[in-house]
Amino acid sequence: xxxxxxxxxxxxxxxxxxxxxxxxxxxxxxxxxxxxxxxxxxxxxxxxxxxxxxxxxxxxxxxxxxxxxxxxxxxxxxxxxxxxxxxxxxxxxxxxxxxxxxxxxxxxxxxxxxxxxxxxxxxxxxxxxxxxxxxxxxxxxxxxxxxxxxxxxxxxxxxxxxxxxxxxxxxxxxxxxxxxxxxxxxxxxxxxxxxxxxxxxxxxxxxxxxxxxxxxxxxxxxxxxxxxxxxxxxxxxx
Length: 238
Fold this sequence. Notes:
The chain is α+β, with helices and mostly antiparallel strands. The chain has helices spanning 2-6, 47-53, 138-141, 160-171, 180-186, 190-202, and strands at residues 61-63, 72-74, 82-86, 104-110, 221-225, 228-234.
């Protein structure tokens, strides 16, 4: 009995799930109670999923980690958005203009140059500039069990068009985004884009080839230059 009781006096954790010495490193370990259903930011809508997603995808803005009440600060953006409200006739309004006078509002965001994607086979290029693994042949997939099985990897710079594409993905019905209806109320042209994307998808083969959303414009989202884009919302929000 004494031996059993003395086990509790040891500095070692008897059920430590980590290898010897691993827990002493500069690594923060956490846990989750429920397995995440979606790791696609267009489909995810729960906090347990975002604990993973936030470590993979970086939005232009984030909440300050310590500030209370919560304050938005730049993340991939090189500053806060430039916000301009307009009247129905296109006149720019002052910041303190009554909400009833605002017909639409523009948010202009600029991404910091030099941000790059983590190396991945999807970005691998041949010497002639073609993608190494697109289209991906079935015999290649038969030999692949993990990303490390691909011989080539590549990267590229994060640009404004990447964020524009993700906004379009929110409107694309096959993604079943839980916030699509909310975005349709605010982003100009969102609902119309969803209809046109649906029609374009219906014209694809039955097996569902990939629909390149870059070919379909959304009136409320515009690429100004390589690092800058504009989002136009209806009226004034919030």
